[in-house]
Automatic annotation (TrEMBL):
One Pfam match: adh_short
Similarity annotation: Belongs to the short-chain dehydrogenases/reductases (SDR) family.
Domain of life: Bacteria
PANTHER family for the chain: DEHYDROGENASE/REDUCTASE SDR FAMILY MEMBER 7B, DEHYDROGENASE_REDUCTASE SDR FAMILY MEMBER 7B
Listed SUPFAM superfamilies: NAD(P)-binding Rossmann-fold domains
GO CC aspect terms: membrane
Species assigned in the record: Streptomyces humidus
One GO molecular-function entry: oxidoreductase activity, acting on the CH-OH group of donors, NAD or NADP as acceptor
InterPro entries the record matches: KR_dom, NAD(P)-bd_dom_sf, Sc_DH/Rdtase_CS, SDR_fam
The name this protein goes by in its record: Oxidoreductase
Keywords linked to the UniProt accession: Oxidoreductase
Occurrences of domain Ketoreductase (ranges): 7-192
Length: 247
């Protein structure tokens, strides 16, 4: 495994859960991290913690549905640390419900954040990766939909599988070795993702599953670090991370 010293990693959705855990772990392993999220006070506090522990961390307020915000994130990483080596697309929401509920606003929100947000990141980072001659795109996807969408999760799974498809397309377009891609699919992870679920019954059911079977966000952060620490000629295309007790 290679050290992450000298690497600059920008992470969306870094105000908690998987994003926060990833930022803290990568900083401990030597990377400079740029935390991006809408909650400025939260990412500022996490960045202060990282710096107090001897790490390097900056912040950038970002709404991933806005292409200009992702452009600003990439620029902020370059301005602060001279380059951007990795973009971790982690921001995501899950206002899941049965299709019969016709929650079209929730459908649109998931498309905008989960899929369009990732594409905005690609549009911002890919030209820089090409110019630098190297770069790594990591997206936090989901085990939802891997084997067919579960009830209530059709649109959520569709957005996540669309991200997986974009990753595969980018991989096939990047056989020159300049850009590497990694899609990481978590199962039940103890995060606040359930807070974005609009159906009260589904929200409480999901929270119970997370409380009983969920594993810490650090498990996903370790998977991110594993993918990033590979030699330049090795690409970890996809990793599934789930509790051993998850069906």
């Amino acid at each position: 495994m290679l050290s992450l010293h000298g690497k600059t990693v920008a992470i969306t959705g870094a105000s908690g859960g998987i994003g926060e855990a990833t930022a803290r772990l990568l900083a401990r392993r030597g990377a400079a991290v740029v935390l991006a999220a809408r909650r400025s006070e939260r990412i500022d506090a996490i960045a202060r913690d990282i710096r107090e522990e001897g790490g390097r961390a900056a912040t950038c307020v970002v709404d991933v549905t806005k292409a200009e915000d992702l452009q600003r994130l990439v620029s902020a990483a370059i301005d602060r640390y001279g380059r951007i080596d990795v973009l971790v697309n982690n921001a995501g929401i899950a206002p899941i419900s049965p299709l019969a509920d016709l929650d079209t606003e929730g459908w649109s929100a998931m498309i905008d954040v989960n899929l369009r947000g990732m594409l905005n990141g690609v549009a911002a980072a890919l030209p820089v990766f090409r110019e630098q001659g190297a770069g790594h795109l990591v997206s936090i996807v989901s085990v939802a939909g891997l084997y067919g969408a579960s009830p209530t999760m059709a649109v959520y799974a569709a957005t996540k599988n669309a991200v997986r498809t974009v990753h595969e397309g980018l991989r096939r377009e990047s056989t020159d070795g300049v850009v590497r891609t990694t899609a990481i699919s978590p199962g039940y992870i103890r995060t606040d993702l359930a807070d974005s679920m609009t159906d009260p019954r589904i929200r409480e059911q999901t929270r119970k599953h997370m409380d009983v079977a969920g594993i810490p966000p650090a498990a996903v952060a370790r998977a991110v670090a594993f993918a990033l620490e590979q030699p330049d000629d090795v690409e970890i295309g996809e990793i599934n991370v789930r509790p051993t007790v998850q069906a």
